[in-house]
## 1
Amino acid sequence: MAPAAAEKLIAHLRSLRSPKDIEGQRRFGITPKTEHLGTRMGRLRQLARRHRRDHALALALWSSGIHEARILAALIGDPTRVTRQQMNAWCRDFDSWDVCDQVCGELFVYTPFAQERTLRWTKSPEEFVKRAGFVMMARMAVRRKDLPDRVFADWLPILTREANDERNFVRKAINWALRQIGKRSPGLRRVAITEAKKILTLDTRSARWIATDALRELANSTTEKPGKRAGRKMPIQGKA
């Protein structure tokens, strides 16, 4: 039985259900298999502010199976209380790129297990599990200032290893990771460009797209902040 706070939040989320927003999100590839309410991210972030680091509530919201409740769980969970078992279980539940990206970017990247899970997940045959590994790379490149650049340089060959994966949400995450690593520092920009050129030589449709798009951005990224493309805000992903 979910705590009373979870039941109250779930009831509130259901009261906000918007068929119009559900349809709009579907056009951006958000088609979860679980209950889908269409609640916008701005509203979810507002709700999350009242419950920061309430990990028990986050677990109860996730167990509801509701798409928006799971995003809310990512926003309020406590990374110091996340276990490997929780990371693996939630990752297996991913059924939409936005849930994957929010959980990885808002919660998992701050856990003590972030680096080891990243390496393991990039080898997964499951589309959203594999995406999670590369989303973790992209998000850590921006948010984990405590990590040395060599961590990200060592990850670049993994992008090349997986660059032939034609699945949409995987190749977009690989591209995202390549761009964000390259924009972390001038030194990483140079090695990311070199790696992108290696990816280009693979000469598959996926590899060509990943490398060409990244090279186009990295060639003009000397003054950009990580997380942004020139002239526009970086989307959550999925349509990047």
## 2
Amino acid sequence: MPTVFITGATGFIGRAICAKMLENGWEVKGTFRKESAISVLPAGVEGVHLDSIESCNFCDQDFTGIDTVIHLAAHVHIMNDPVVDSVEVFRKVNVLGTERLARMAAKAGVKRFIFISSVKVNGEGVLRPYTEKDIPEPQDAYGTSKREAEDSLACISAETGLQTVVLRLPLVYGPGVKANFKNLIKITGAGLPLPFKNISNRRSFIYLGNLMDVIITCVTHPLAVGETFLVSDGQDVSTPELIKIIACAMKKKVVLFFLHPIILKALCKIAGKTEEMEKLTGTLLVDSSKIRNLLGWKPPFTLEEGIRETVRGIEIASPLRGSQ
């Protein structure tokens, strides 16, 4: 049986890809950091303890018989914590950690290395869709570290022959999603009037089920080797459209009203939610035609199907009772 090694196996995406690879007949090894996290791994996954991705405290036997590494583990943005969000921490984990892992994999004879990167390598959004041909313009430490990790992998591939594939993702949603997307679902379900009626942005997303299919394709397809792909559902929507799709999936009525953007931004600044509002109302588009044309990939789920599955997994608490 082919064997895959997955870092970040206890995370939102990691748990899903572990389960999907098992379903497809692969043997799966998945990393965990805390002993309490072992129970999160899907049944059938062989857990591999990892103190930190930058230390790469693996032994040779951890990579014995591994065909493919899927590298999900990363340091991500933590708001309002300048120490944890320092450039040095991002580089240590996302660049040095990735480089060490890739070299260990190459030394052990691993054939393919799938690196989960971010559209933030391209930038924070322009009025047209990003493509793989665009010159990267990361705007923060996270995007910069992902770009540097991609460069390191290209060098390691050239030196060792390790087959690398890079996937740059927009926001991923699905059952178990957290942060801004989960909050948007909760406030939509609460039935409160929302001030987004005249927001005319456009955003690309990718549903977890579609991402699983992308990863499986890149693990097995010979033409994926050495490529970088931007991926999405292929259905770009505005924030008002997204809210209406969520409300429909929840069988809820939603009332949108107009509030001047300047006032909206000012209120969010006072509330300390400027970054969240920018992500919610800004434009960020990706063109995923390269992977569709080169690998023949098509998303198996529509945006509407993905939203329906996502809201099923989120308990909508009453605004009076609070979260249970």
## 3
Amino acid sequence: MTDASDDLIQPFMIESSGLRGRLIRMGPVVEDVISRHDLPEAVQGLMAEFVILAVALSAALKFDGIFTLQAKGNGPIGLMAADVTSDGGVRAYASVGKDVPSIEEIEGSPVPRLFGAGYLAFTVDQGDHTELYQGIVELQGPTLIDCVHHYFQQSDQFDAALTLAAERQTEGGWRAGALMLQRLPEDELSLRREEMDEAWRRATILMGSCQREELTDRALSPHQLLFRLFHEDGVRVFDTLPLTFSCRCSRERAEGIINMLSLEEIEEYMIDGKISIKCEFCNTEQWFDDTQIKALRAS
């Protein structure tokens, strides 16, 4: 049975200041995303954090399309990507090489130990007739939180604070949670600058009191956690957005890839008279035999 407090984005507002925030909880969906890949345990943990981070960042933006978070480095993980659609569809994958360190070896510094040197990229794609938004920042810091706060300091799009957690539980597999506060432009708040600064400091201190285990505790509902943190200043919740695993691969997309291959490439990729097109996100394979390939290329 799916827990009503799992796999959702819970928007909220601190009533005394008007500051906005998002609480994200992921259980079965993040486990589904990770279980589709054969990954070392250390990479699984980083992917769980990466997915919840992508969802948190997407929740802070108004868009109709796809938000993509990518990290590219020269370490054991060459590339990790997660994307989130505006209706809550989530997927992710990682390109992992050899010599992945253990969980004990990466403790406290997963980013440099797994990604090495590289960059973090944020992309919002709202379709063919809109401008593509992209932000890029170097992977600076031992954790994803450090890297994203480095991005916040440079960004015109995000004035925010964020905390997150992910853990593998004895029952139910991976769980993850995140809490983000967003500072609005001054003209959207009725407070004076000094009052706004003080409200922001107070809100971030209260957010900082949130324990990692509280973010992933299935017995603690989002409403209970938000009340525990912000009840002295008043907290108002709004309608939640459910999250689901969703992959956009299809037979038609695979056919498009086949049509882009040259005759030489088709011969090279053939195995026992067939070609397999595999989706990196969900590991689904679409098989095409010689007859089907010839029919596609003749159409």
## 4
Amino acid sequence: MRVAVTGAAGLLGQKMVESALTGGSEVFPFDMIGGSETAAGPVVELDITSAAEVRNEIASCGPDWIVNTAAFTAVDDSEGDDRRVHEVNVVGVENLLAAASAGGCRLLTLSTDYVFDGSAGPYEEDDMRNPLGVYGASKAAMEDAVISHGGSHLIVRTMVLYGAAPGVRTNFGLWVLQNLRADREMTIVTDQMGNPTLASDLARLLLEMMERGAEGTWHVAGRDRVSRFDFAVALARAFGLDKNLIRPVRTIDLGQAADRPLESGFTLRRLQDDLRLEPLGLDASLGSFRAEVERYGDGR
């Protein structure tokens, strides 16, 4: 299998490259900023908002699959930059769809629990969407674009992605770990529910879905649904660090620019029943995260 990965310099992108290579695929890594190294070699610069660039680069490598992990994911910053968010999260995917159609390949692209309003989680794939902010609305518009394009498609919603890899942005898991190791107190919300998802495990599951020819919209995340606070406490326990540095707070008291879906999370019945795929539970994923940190560091 030939796999093009966009956003290959990011956390999930790197894990996807590694997973595909391990599975015997030929991998072509792309990112908005080129030059960094992946397990498949140097990243090729590709601006997915440029239709011409996307068309030319995808045609040159002739993949069977395009896996799009590139996205504008800064939730609060999205509130003041609607145009850029739309360009990356919607127009970029439309460009990839056009290239996939022209090249006779398939597109897998990532979505989020932020397409829901967090009033009635955990959510199933067919539950009504009602995004609260610009980021979630852009992902809902992306889903609509993929579906309206027609043909075979694969949309995977995930959430609370964490992990360690060279040169990646700090994610929630790394941020908690960095603070714990520095003996800094932190306040973490008790009223945001979700499924913490180790990026390397998500990449494993995505590759399995691709190999099995999965279609449609799927929820793929860690098996256990917990609050952000309980996730942080479990992380402290896994690393033998002081959980008393973690202080509880309500989301409303943080004054963040973007609203968050509070009672969120996914049911994973379709993934487990239809494909017989089982994501890692929280304790197992934290064990793997610890091994990643030992290999790559905690990003400080």
